[in-house]
Write a structure and sequence with these properties.
about 170 residues, five-stranded antiparallel β-sheet, 4 helices, globular
C-alpha cells in the first residue's frame, strides 16, 4: 500500500492517534488513492487486493439524493455475520429509526461536503449481535466523477464485552 505514514494522519481534524490500526489503514489508503487534492477517489480507484486484510470489516453504501437514502452495496464477511445479510438493503429499512439517527445526519454531512470523513467510537447505534458492545468506524466519500459523492466507504470494527483482565 503506497499511503501516507500513519504519523501524518493523526493531527486534527484527522483521525485520533489511538484509532485502531485498520481504521488508520483504510483512511490512509483512501487518501493515497485520491486522484488529486481537489478530487475524491471513486469506486474505480479501489484496488481490493491492496486492502485485502481489511475486507472483512469493509462496507459500501450507495447514495441516492432527493431524498437522501443509502443502500448497502457490499458487506465484508465480519459485518455480514454481525448485522445480517443486508446487501442491497436500504439502511432506513434495515435499521429502525435510521433517518432520525446521528448516523443519518452524519452521512448527509459527509455527502454534502461539510466534513471530509466520519469517525465514531462507542456503543453501536443499531442492534448488533448482543455479545458486541462497542464499535469503531470510519467512513470516507467516493465519487466516480471526483466531485459528486455517490458511495460511502466504511470500515467498522466491533468489539466484545470486556472480560476480567481483557481489553477489547
Amino acid at each position: 500500500m503506497n499511503s501516507p505514514a500513519i504519523s501524518e494522519i493523526c493531527n486534527p481534524p484527522e483521525l485520533p492517534c489511538d484509532s485502531a490500526g485498520p481504521v488508520l489503514e483504510i483512511y490512509a489508503y483512501w487518501r493515497s488513492i485520491r486522484p488529486s487534492p481537489a478530487l475524491l477517489p471513486g469506486r474505480k480507484h479501489l484496488k481490493l487486493r491492496e486492502i485485502a486484510p481489511l475486507l472483512r470489516n469493509i462496507w459500501l453504501a450507495d447514495v441516492q439524493r432527493n431524498p437522501y437514502r443509502f443502500r448497502y452495496r457490499l458487506l465484508g464477511t465480519k459485518i455480514d455475520h454481525l448485522i445480517g445479510n443486508l446487501k442491497g438493503a436500504w439502511l432506513d429499512e434495515a435499521h429502525d429509526n435510521f433517518e432520525r439517527s446521528v448516523a443519518y445526519t452524519e452521512f448527509v454531512d459527509l455527502i454534502e461536503g461539510r466534513v471530509e470523513f466520519l469517525y465514531f467510537k462507542g456503543p453501536p447505534l443499531f442492534s448488533v449481535n448482543r455479545n458486541y458492545i462497542w464499535l469503531e468506524r470510519v467512513c470516507v466519500p467516493l465519487a466516480d466523477n471526483g466531485r459528486d459523492i455517490d458511495t460511502i466507504l466504511g470500515l467498522t470494527l466491533y468489539g466484545p464485552a470486556r472480560r476480567e483482565g481483557v481489553d477489547p
